[in-house]
Design a protein that fits this description.
The protein is an alpha+beta fold. Helices cover about 30% and strands about 25% of the residues.
Length: about 775
């Protein structure tokens, strides 16, 4: 039987030369008319997907054998772009504006790289075919030109406006925010695409239209379709007795536990408990809403949750992954009501090391719905009124603080990287107008939940790694060697040397560097440049570790209400608990599905982050509109070849364009990340404190412009005579999957592990921990 894989593999053989249909027909032994039709369909499908190419002489071959590269186009407002190759690690290919040939940002394309590439130069190329359009709908502002109009697209990576004939405008007027659909693309990229208006969102100055435009730009679905809501409405408001007793679910309703969240949170998906055991260890319980009990695989709810991938938190609203009936109702761990959960119990010794653990289905009833603010006031401010109000829980909160700090210390000692950057919260009035931009607190209350969730995520990930069952992991690749090498060279300007090579450097070394620069003038610049050398975390079906957390095993288990990968993790846990190890057929089925789920949810996460960031930038710009002419003190947060960005204490960032620096001609020094005056040698670097004046705000562009009115404090960064050398050793190789040494669930009636004398699970398991090395003084 001729398959897609056989055709592609055949064409990739070294001896293959481009063949005609007839030659391929003979090579594959296609004889009957029916088989020939199917064969032609396969060739056409492979050609449409860009896996094979048909030449002008009607011969077929694979792109890589024809000096063609498939990738995703990343456009630029100036008209040029880059083709991001599908193969990781391969360089991006620069496409000039006149070589775009009608391709738009996000399109999947085939490009031909230029053969004239000097060593060390960037690779340039030309787009020769558009395989798949990213989309044909764009959000923008309508500009009326009497007999016709243009839609100025909000996404600036779309360099061409969309031409709209008058009879296709739906009556839109100048300034309307609209959705335009392209009906005719430019063949050579030199003319504007032509389209029609399909929806008018409102005037750009109407309240709420700005956020609505971003929602449509990123194709975020606010409402749920009827068939999804029908299923959501069929979910009961209360848990039946049968559900409480079924599937070996353990009853934890007598255990003291709480939720700790923000005051405005409504989807409470995690509860925590902590108690001291007779042997002096601690029993930490992390109890997560059992969303997989209600959202079954392949159901309308499941398909919609997969499509969304994640909940999106915008300034004035939340676009949930699941309907509110579930996310705020039966799945939310509200106080004093029965809720179905998956529990991860961890026994911690005095060093906060997990010595035993257990993962099982449970039913809980939380004692209180606590807020971060109240827990902070109890623990740090000794608020007597709150202490009296929550008197039975206060000892547990104090114990939680102690255990969380031990967990954090243990995590930092192993080398987890902790960037302590400021985060802001934008307050808006009922019409969506920003009234204040404040800093988010990261108090001990937030740290308690953060550390407990990290511990549970690591424990669950390690458990299933050793079971050698299909699973989904949260991974963070090692930094790009080139970027890390540049970073290590950069910090030598400040007298710091990190031992090791970019290919084997331990994350502990980078955290030791952050500790070393803490409180110094160079702290900001080193932290920001280090962050830029890191890769983005993502979901994968293989356990490749988490560099930033210095964790060999990590997953997302704790937020199934708002993250689809967590829901998949729960589904796989429940399969193990209820059915045991997977059959080979089930393993193959999941092995095929999980990479696509990981890729899709990673993409949806990026979309959510971009939408949230753009919404924040929009509202921050709007907040600054009435502050033009006012002066503030800020810190240089970034330096580029066109100017520098200055960040105010509330995290609002503005650009000081190079043209606004009028006391000299400034040049960008890429090696030191500085703007240096040609005549005066005056410089501006990341971390310098400057006094600025707000000179302009463009809400449509989400930008704020500053000019410098004086230097507040220059960060002195002369290289130290005695260099500070940081050495943390090389990274260790990951262990291969084996058998687990602890139980993943027990039958109804079994005793919890901390009350058992015998070990549970299989005999083989993870290697024993090595003795701790003595710390160097």
């Amino acid at each position: 039987m001729v398959t897609e894989q056989r055709i592609v593999e055949f064409m990739r053989e070294e001896a293959y030369h481009p063949m005609t249909v007839q030659e391929l027909e003979e090579a594959f032994g296609v004889e009957s008319a029916t088989d020939f039709k199917e064969f032609i369909k396969l060739l056409n499908l492979l050609e449409e997907e860009g896996k094979i190419i048909r030449t002008r002489s009607n011969r077929y071959g694979v792109p890589e054998r024809m000096n063609l590269i498939k990738g995703k186009l990343q456009g630029n407002a100036k008209g040029f772009g880059f083709v991001i190759q599908e193969t990781a690690g391969e360089p991006d290919i620069y496409i000039s504006a006149h070589d775009m040939n009608g391709a738009l940002n996000g399109d999947i394309v085939l490009c031909r790289p230029s053969p004239k590439v000097k060593s060390g130069s960037r690779v340039e190329g030309e787009i020769i075919r558009i395989l798949q359009r990213a989309n044909n709908r764009f959000v923008g502002t309508y500009s009326d030109e009497k007999n016709y109009g243009f839609v100025i697209v909000d996404d600036k990576r779309m360099s061409k406006d969309i031409f709209v004939p008058k009879n296709m405008s739906m009556g839109a007027v100048d300034g309307h925010k609209v959705i335009a659909e392209i009906s005719k693309y430019s063949e050579d990229g030199r003319t504007n695409p032509e389209g029609k208006i399909v929806e008018i969102l409102g005037h750009k100055n109407d309240p709420g239209v700005d956020i609505l435009s971003i929602i449509h730009k990123y194709e975020l679905a606010e409402g749920f379709d009827d068939h999804v809501m029908v299923q959501a409405e069929s979910v009961p408001d209360e848990i039946s007795e049968e559900e409480l007793q079924g599937q070996g679910r353990r009853d934890l309703r007598d255990r003291v536990m709480v939720t700790i969240d923000g005051a405005d949170a409504k989807d409470l998906d995690d509860a925590v408990s902590l108690e001291k055991l007779d042997n002096g260890n601690y029993l930490l319980g992390v109890h997560i809403a059992d969303v997989s009990h209600y959202v079954k695989e392949g159901s309308p709810l499941d398909e919609e949750a997969y499509r969304r991938g994640t909940s999106v938190y915008l300034v004035d609203r939340v676009i949930p992954m699941l309907p509110h009936r579930l996310s705020n109702g039966i799945c939310s761990l509200n106080p004093q009501v029965n809720r179905l959960t998956l529990t991860c119990d961890m026994e911690l010794d005095e060093d906060a090391k997990v010595v035993r653990h257990d993962i099982y289905a449970s039913v809980i009833k939380t004692n209180e719905r606590m807020t971060y603010s109240d827990v902070y006031k109890i623990l740090e401010e000794e608020d007597q009124e709150l202490i009296d109000r929550y008197e039975p829980l206060v000892p547990m909160f104090r114990m939680m603080k102690d255990v969380a700090l031990r967990l954090r210390n243990k995590r930092m000692e192993r080398g987890a990287i902790d960037f302590d950057f400021k985060e802001s919260k934008i307050l808006v009035d009922p019409e969506g107008k920003p009234t204040e931009v404040i800093l988010r607190d990261r108090t001990i209350a937030e740290q308690i939940i953060e550390e407990f969730m990290l511990a549970a995520n690591e424990t669950v990930a390690e458990h299933f790694h050793w079971l050698n069952q299909p699973f989904i992991y949260r991974t963070h690749e090692d930094p790009d060697e080139g970027k890390l090498r540049n970073f290590l060279q950069f910090i030598q300007n400040f007298g710091y040397v990190v031992k090791g090579t970019p290919s084997d450097i331990h994350p502990r070394a980078l955290q030791m560097l952050l500790d070393q620069v803490h409180g110094t003038p160079e702290e900001t610049v080193i932290s920001k440049v280090m962050l830029r050398s890191m890769k983005q975390a993502k979901y994968e079906a293989a356990n490749n570790g988490h560099f930033g957390l210095a964790a060999e095993y990590y997953t997302h288990f704790t937020s199934p209400i708002r993250r689809y990968p967590d829901l998949i993790v729960h589904r796989l846990i429940r399969h193990w608990l209820e059915q045991g190890p997977m059959t080979e057929e089930q393993k193959e089925e999941w092995a095929e599905k999980l990479p696509d789920i990981a890729r899709h949810t990673s993409e949806r996460e990026r979309v959510a982050v971009d939408a949230e960031r753009e919404t924040d930038d929009l509202k921050k710009a709007e907040f600054m509109e009435d502050k033009v002419g006012q002066e503030f003190e800020g810190m240089v947060s970034s330096v580029t070849n066109f100017g520098m960005f200055v960040e105010l204490p509330n995290t609002i960032e503005g650009l000081v364009h190079m043209s606004y620096l009028t006391d000299d001609y400034y040049h960008y020094d890429e090696r030191t990340y500085a703007l240096v005056g040609e005549r005066t040698k005056k410089s501006y670097r990341i971390g310098d404190m400057v006094n600025i004046r707000v000179v302009g705000v463009n809400k449509d562009e989400h930008t704020v412009d500053f000019e410098v009115v004086g230097m507040a404090q220059r960060a002195e960064r002369k290289p130290k005579k005695a260099k500070i050398v940081i050495e943390a050793g090389k990274r260790e190789k990951k262990a291969k999957p084996g058998k687990v040494a602890v139980a993943a669930g027990k039958k109804k009636g079994d005793q919890p592990f901390w009350k058992e004398a015998a070990k549970a699970g299989n005999k083989k398991g993870p290697k024993k921990a090595k003795p701790k090395k003595k710390k160097k003084k």
